[in-house]
């Protein structure tokens, strides 16, 4: 069964569209790379959004692998500035509360979790290990799809996945959710996606 390490992208710049990582986010990405560099990874994937690719870059360099971009690891919603930020947050809250709510821009929680799950099913390759630089919302959507809402910690629904955290799966079986021990030493401020 394929082991999958889902890496929450590092802290991003607070800008609309496709922002990159902050200096702290680059530190988080480097620490995630250090934590995973000896896991015998065979593939490294990233969402096409800049913050995910920048998170995958240190790991790809450490492992001597190229980053494969796959849109199925993209966030359920991405604020591009075309709608007021208040509307974006209102839609985000609605997609969290009602998994079938379809926002003006983006996917429902159920659709996002389903596409990420389908991506992982496609990656099944025996005893391989892969890493995926993704986003907090779609990772929570995946966990809700795999475990059911009642099994997902409420803090993740409220606050999101911490920047730089690693969620580990064996195939579609969740082994560890949002591990952050590799980030020790960084200040504890958490800014979800």
TrEMBL record:
This is Histidine phosphatase family protein. It comes from Glycomyces buryatensis. Signal peptide: none annotated. It holds the Pfam family His_Phos_1. One of its GO terms (molecular function) is phosphatase activity. GO terms for cellular component: cytoplasm. InterPro entries: His_Pase_superF_clade-1, His_PPase_superfam, PGM_Phosphatase.
